[in-house]
Amino acid sequence: MSSTLHRLAGKVAIVTGASRGIGKAIALQLGSLGVKVVVNYANSSSAAEEVVATIGKDHAISVKADTSKIDEIERLVATTIEKFGKIDILIPNAGTMDMRDLAHTTEEDFDKAISVNVKGPYFLAQKAAPHLQPGSHIIFISTTLTVASSVAPGYLLYNTTKGAVEQMTRVICKDLGTKGIYVNAIAPGPTGTELYYKGKPEAMLTAIANAHPQKRIATVDEIAENVVSLAASRWVSGQIIRVNGGMA
């Protein structure tokens, strides 16, 4: 595996939503392997700069961009090319996880979730694709909840967006496969991020952990390790990798 990961040295990656959570862990792990990382963030400039400082300012930059807006996506891609000259790894990680069931979803809720979780990754892939060379990777982020046998009604809106991401993965791999580009998705189970904990009472978190075969919630580093391994892989495309410790 170490020799496989050595293939990442000198690559250039864009990681959206990289100032915290899974995105931060991905950016740091890629940076530790010699990848030049564009640390995208929407609001927290200080957190993004901490990630850049840890990787090293010669190998990382932070770029503020709302990836639900096409003009800002275009600026993110253009800044990457201007700074590093290429894109080898694209990880559209930025997302929202608002809990909404059918009765309590407003049009505003729906439009926001689609814009961030679907429109953003879709058009980021579109705008980055002309700069991707054969052997490059796009790695989307989905969720194991799209196939879990038991899903609470409150996950309806979130799962709707992630179902779209999985279809994007399945079809875009056919499109970009003609250029030798690999397109996959990582689908984590419950993972201890700030976004995941938001709004969940302690009793719910305990129940989720106890329902898991390993009686715990994953760490962000465990998810990131699998993203990084996939970024170094060859001949894997169109796959949804369920990284959930056996939950589903």
Describe what you observe in this structure.
- This protein has 248 residues and is α/β, with parallel strands linked by helices.
- It has a single domain, classed as Rossmann fold (3-Layer(aba) Sandwich), CATH 3.40.50.720.
- It contains nine helices and seven strands; from the N terminus they run αβαβαβαβαβαβαααβ.
- It has helices at 2-5, 21-32, 45-55, 70-84, 107-128, 156-176, 194-197, 202-211, 220-231; strands spanning 12-15, 36-41, 60-64, 87-91, 132-141, 182-188, 240-243.
- The protein has a seven-stranded parallel sheet, with helices on both faces.
- β2 (36-41), α3 (45-55) and β3 form a beta-alpha-beta unit.
- α5 runs parallel beside α6 (156-176).
- It is globular and about 45 Å long.
- The two termini are 25 Å apart.
- The mean pLDDT is 95.
- This is NAD(P)-binding protein.
- Belongs to the short-chain dehydrogenases/reductases (SDR) family.
- Keywords: NADP, Oxidoreductase.
Q: Label the structural class.
A: alpha/beta
Low-confidence stretches: none
Topology as a string of helices (H) and strands (E): HEHEHEHEHEHEHHHE
| Continuous helix count | 9
Q: What integer value in Å does the Rg equal?
A: 17 Å
CATH class: Alpha Beta
Mean pLDDT: 95
Q: What fraction of residues sit in β-strands?
A: 15-25%
Outline of this structure?
This protein has 248 residues and is an alpha/beta fold. It has 9 helices and 7 strands, in the order αβαβαβαβαβαβαααβ.
